[in-house]
TrEMBL record:
The species this protein was found in: Serendipita vermifera MAFF 305830
Protein name per the record: Enoyl-CoA hydratase
Domain of life assignment: Eukaryota
GO cellular component: peroxisome
One of the protein's GO biological processes: fatty acid beta-oxidation
A Pfam family the protein falls into: ECH_1
Length: 275
């Protein structure tokens, strides 16, 4: 396939391409740090739809061709990577002032991406070729596998440090995917910056790669090729929805975020009634 740029070639934030016959790539290139803005979220969601349609078009024909036993029935995998010409950021997350002005930003623009990835019908590998902070970390965790650059790359949910509350969906995802509650504590209420070695040790990532973005991409491609046979029978995404049920339920049940000033006001009302 020819690369597809979204939303268009003159303002491209995301490029969809093929790295192999059965492996798609979504490359994010929204400025220097891939902020997950409204246009970026829209472009990324559309890119995921394009890849899924490409896989389903092939899978549908292959699955119905019962006479061709040698045919590769709907193999597929996806790699999500940041701009391979830079080495610093996978994604720096949301623009926090936007969240404060638009409380429905996350459910409107980011939750759909979370739901897409948590039930995506082919394996998804996050090629973390730089820092993944806040929602950038979330994006990587919504993928099935994570391959991370060894040096000059951190994972961090740093909302604690800039005074940002987290939505229920974020805690639900990490409580579902992290190895235990002590890691969740370290992530959220210590705002720890995990080096690649630390992330590998606590199983937040699956592989650490020495070198630049190309090295991370090549390692991700090798992994994608090994996994690409898994969706052939068409149940890969259905099974993912079951094992990710807790996280998906957390997205559906997500209440409105409460900001610090609102909590302070609520405490004031409560204490004035008592004292």
């Amino acid at each position: 396939m020819q690369p597809i740029q979204l939303p268009n070639s003159s303002e491209a934030l995301v490029t969809v391409s093929k790295a192999h016959e059965h492996v798609w790539t979504i490359e994010m290139h929204n400025g220097a740090d891939n902020r997950l803005s409204e246009p970026m979220c829209r472009a990324l969601s559309t890119a995921l739809d394009i890849v899924e349609k490409g896989w389903r078009d092939v899978w549908r024909v292959a699955y119905n061709d019962k006479n061709d036993q040698e045919k590769v029935k709907g193999s597929g995998a996806l790699i999500i990577i940041a701009n391979r010409k830079q080495q610093k950021f996978f994604s720096n997350g949301f623009d926090y002032p936007t969240l404060q002005r638009r409380p429905h930003f996350i459910p409107t623009f980011f939750h759909p991406i979370m739901k897409q990835l948590l039930g995506y019908p082919i394996p998804v590998i996050a090629a973390i070729n730089g820092h993944a902070f806040a929602a950038g970390f979330m994006l990587a965790m919504c993928c099935d596998y994570r391959v991370m650059k060894a040096s000059k790359a951190w994972l961090s949910m740093n909302e604690l440090l800039f005074g940002g509350p987290i939505p229920h969906s974020f805690s639900a995802l990490f409580n579902s995917k992290a190895a235990d509650s002590t890691i969740v504590r370290k992530i959220f209420i210590e705002a720890h910056r995990f080096t690649s070695a630390e992330a590998l040790e606590v199983r937040l990532v699956d592989e650490v790669v020495e070198g630049d973005s190309d090295a991370v991409f090549n390692a991700s491609l090798n992994r994608a090729l090994k996994l690409s046979h898994l969706p052939r029978m068409g149940v890969y995404g259905l099974i993912k929805k079951e094992i990710n049920y807790t996280a998906l339920r957390g997205i559906v049940d997500d209440p409105r975020m409460v900001f610090p000033i609102e909590e302070e006001q609520a405490f004031g009302y409560k204490i004035s009634a008592k004292l």
